[in-house]
Amino acid sequence: MVKKRNMWAQVGLVIITLGIYVIYWFYQTATELKYLANDPEASPGLWTVLLFIPFGAIYSHYKYGSLYEKVSSEKLNRWIIFLLWFVFSPAVWFIVQTDLNRRVTEGKVAPATA
After folding, report:
1. In the predicted model, is pLDDT for residue 114 greater than 60?
2. In terms of Cα–Cα distance, which of 45, 26, 17 is closest to 96?
3. Residue 107, helix vs strand vs coil
4. Structure pTM?
5. Using H for helix, E for strand and C for coil, what is the string for the chain?
6. Which residues are registered as beta bridge partners of 107?
7. Of 3, 12, 36, 112, whose CB count within 10 A is highest?
């Protein structure tokens, strides 16, 4: 299930939590992408932990981009998402969240109940 999230509320949460919300968002959206891709190999929990390890973060961002490429309605290449993580990470947040919100609004996926 995928949760529709308000973009402005997320900006506020990032500011209020001094960026900690970004870690939560990464894990939640990776879990939702895993659900959409029906990929049992994906490991959002491991990827989130690896964000705290210098070279592990590179692996995490690559795997996240690969998973997003599988389910992207825009068919964005994994390398674009991967590079955006390092050049301008808010762009990844905007691209992924907008796509997930669109899917929920159009009824393409079951919305999360909580």
Report:
1. no
2. 26
3. coil
4. 0.89
5. CECCCCHHHHHHHHHHCCCHHHHHHHHHHHHHHHHHHCCCCCCHHHHHHHCCCHHHHHHHHHHHHHHHHHHCCCCCCHHHHHHHHHHCHHHHHHHHHHHHHHHHHCCCCCECCC
6. none
7. 36
Structure confidence at residue 112 (pLDDT)? 66
pLDDT tens digit sequence for 1-38 = 889 999 999 999 999 999 999 999 999 999 999 999 99
Residue 13's alpha-carbon distances to 17, 67, 78, 82, in angstroms, are 6, 25, 27, 24
Using alpha carbons, select from 15, 30, 42 the residue that is nearest to residue 96. 30
> Which pair of tokens denotes residue 4?
């529709």
What are the domain boundaries of the chain?
Answer: 19-105
Distances (CA, A) of 4 to 75, 80, 84: 20, 24, 22
Residue with tokens 């690896």: 50
